[in-house]
Amino acid sequence: MTGRRRFLAGIGAALAGTGLAGCGYRPGGGDIRWREDSLRGLYRTDRVAVSGETLYTVADARQSYDAGAETWRHGARFIAYDTGGGGERYRDQFDRSARAFGVGEGDVAAGLGEPATGLNDEGATAYAVVRFGPDGRQWEVTVDAPVEQLAVAADRVYAVTDEGTLVACADGEVRWRQGPYTLGDAGPDRAQSALVGAGPAGVVLADGGEPVHVAPDGTERWRRADVSMVQQALGADSERVYVADEATLYALAAGSGETRWQSNPAGDRPEYAREGGRYYRTDGGFYRVRDGTLHALDDTGGVRWTTDGPARETRVAASEADVFVRTGEGLTAFAADDGSHRWTVEYDDLDAGPFLVDDGVLVVSGRTAVCHVP
Amino acid sequence: MEWESDRGLNLRMAIALVLVAVLPVAFIYAFVLAMNTVGVGLLEWATDRPWNGRFYVKPWLAVGAVAVGFAAQFSLGDRAALRAVDARRVDRDSHPDLLARVDRLAQVASVESPPVAVSRSSVPNAFAVGVRPANATVVVTEGLLDALDDDELDAVLAHELAHVKNRDVTVMSLSYFLPSLTYAVAIAAFFVLKGLLHVVGGFRHVDDDGAKGLVAAIVVITVSALITAAISVLFWLASFLLFRTLAQYREHAADRGAAAITGDPLALASALRTVEDGMSEMPDRDLREVDGGLEALYVAPIDDYQFGGADRDLISSDIFPATHPPTDERIERLQDLAGEQS
């Protein structure tokens, strides 16, 4: 090789090897990290949830035409997608529709309710609770009645049936039953306004608006009759359970039910605040949305900051750095420390999200799932 | 020989070297700036998705790329220059007298005797190329060898050796990097636009979706090409101005150096007159053959512009100083020098 060719080869190798690493486009907040345009296939998706690194969707799918019954058989179709790139992880088809959906601890659970047409010919009961993980269906257990609410924690799935029975399920078995309880109206969006919340310390639910805490072994630990208008059970950690009506967020001691702190950032009276107020427990703390205002709360319920903009039907997703909400313009990010506006990406309509995922914030619009750079 | 170090030339070369190093890096970051202002907006419009990030070029890469460009200029520049004027190195068998002259003059100038190349051009001219004095090459045309007498040839060769000794050949080689780069980029942008017009002219029917995509592509390519061309032209102006301004001063310095080497300023004056007269009698075609983008290196300016061609009048010499001082001025200075010596 001549010196000149050696020189040119060296330049080529240098450009190829190191040049590309030093230049390019550094994505900014709101940029699209990935986009999956065929999220829903041919079917309407009823529910979307994210847990861990998996996006779960539940669609009411028409399976086949039953000539004998002269009707279509309906069933739920679960499809799980990888939140790292939008690729499909797996899909699962059922011959019953899904009535409830719960998320927690990296997994989701579904309550399979109404039997598909024709399946009850032999009088079989088809109600079930199914737990899904990132790699597929984990277990399924039959329950006595249609499931209304679900909460997932550690190895447990807590289901409340339409008869008000709290059923604790684990590893494909029913561990215990408790109740009956009277779940109130969870509002127009039951997926967001869970009346059952779970955690390591057990499960908390709203029985006629009163918070009730049940330990993991099925023992009813306490009831707070003086907190009577609970609309949300936000879950529990090892020391506290969190419930809220549409005005006030309560942090209650898991063992005794005593109030550790409570927060009412807008000073609303519960009886006048039933419309629209909603709390969110996120990785980055507690947030409240009401009438287009977002309140960020600290660990003791104090208001850190307030900003305008969220849409009424928003979901709040937050990390320690960012807060994401739906606004009239689309998806908006605020700085978690002071509430300052960071960016907005325009959407005509957002059907689900925002959800916080490992490398971004995920929303669903129409048939498309989009993961944005935070 | 009384050789005076030219502080003015050294200062100019130092300033030129700084600008020569800074301008190409600034050229790169001008594109980055354009991408982060106009470019991202354009991409957002064309792709209908957010582009809130930033394009970037890490400083080490920008500096490294420029360094590679300079290295290429160093490594390949002299060969390219010789090829551009169809010059080949000669030995003592074919040109004994010429090489003997160069040896003698180099000894007087206290520089290593450089290789000599002869161009087949009939246009009388000469120049020197090479990164360092040790590997410099003095180039003369056959036209020069035919046109000059012995003293005039000595004077011209001494002029080229003065360039070598002053090391301004190195600076000129580097100075030519950015004009070459910006010119190439601007021409590339022009051909992209020209190709786009050709392609668009070939479309007969497109559906609505295709038309939308086509319009977006046309707008993006057109705006990108125009911005690229605008930035390139801007930096070409700056670099070429620097290049030519430096070129003028170095010629005066080399003239003084030649006078010091030969002790005969009037021989160089006579040679300059002969070379200029010789070139003015040459048809344009021959002048373009000898140009090759090396005008600034010649002993005397050629009568055609490397970037102008037939449109040379479009480039004002008020804005773009000629690569060489006016020959009459140089001759006048040489005559003054002769008067001082006598």
Strands of the widest sheet of chain B, in order across it, are 2-3-5-4
User: Main beta sheet of chain A: strand number and arrangement?
Assistant: 4 strands, antiparallel
Largest interface: A-B, 22 and 20 residues
Please state the CA-atom Rg of chain A, rounded to the nearest Å: 24 Å
What is the ordering of alpha helices and beta strands of chain B?
HEHEHEEEHHHHHHHH
| Shape by Cα distribution of chain B | elongated
Mean pLDDT across the residues of chain A is 79
Distance between the termini of chain A: 50 Å
Number of strands of chain B: 5
Distance between the termini of chain B: 16 Å
Which regions of chain B have little confidence, pLDDT < 50, spanning 5+ residues? 302-321
Question: Major sheet of chain B, described briefly?
Answer: 4 strands, mixed
Helix content of chain A: under 10%
Instruction: Give the averaged pLDDT of chain B, no decimals.
Output: 79
How does this structure look, described?
The complex is a heterodimer of chains A (374) and B (342). Chain A has one helix at 3-19; strands spanning 23-26, 32-36, 45-51, 54-66, 71-82, 88-93, 96-104, 107-115, 128-133, 136-142, 147-153, 156-161, 166-170, 173-178, 196-199, 202-207, 210-214, 220-223, 232-236, 240-244, 249-253, 259-263, 278-282, 285-290, 293-297, 303-308, 317-318, 322-326, 330-335, 341-346, 352-357, 360-365, 368-372. By secondary structure, chain A is mainly beta. A four-stranded antiparallel beta sheet of chain A has the order 2-33-32-31, with no helix packed on it. In chain A, a hairpin with a 3-residue loop joins strand 19 (232-236) and strand 20. Mean pLDDT of chain A is 79; it is low at 116-123 and 186-193. Chain B is elongated. Chain B has helices at 7-47, 59-84, 96-109, 142-147, 150-166, 168-175, 177-201, 208-262, 265-280, 284-291, 327-341; strands at residues 54-57, 87-89, 116-119, 126-129, 137-141. Chain B is mainly alpha-helical. Residues 302-321 of chain B have low confidence and may be disordered. The A-B interface holds A 4, 7, 11, 14-15, 18-19, 22-32, 343, 345, 372-373 and B 49-58, 60-61, 64-65, 68, 71-72, 75-76, 79. Strand 1 (23-26) of chain A pairs antiparallel with strand 1 of chain B, so a sheet runs across the interface.
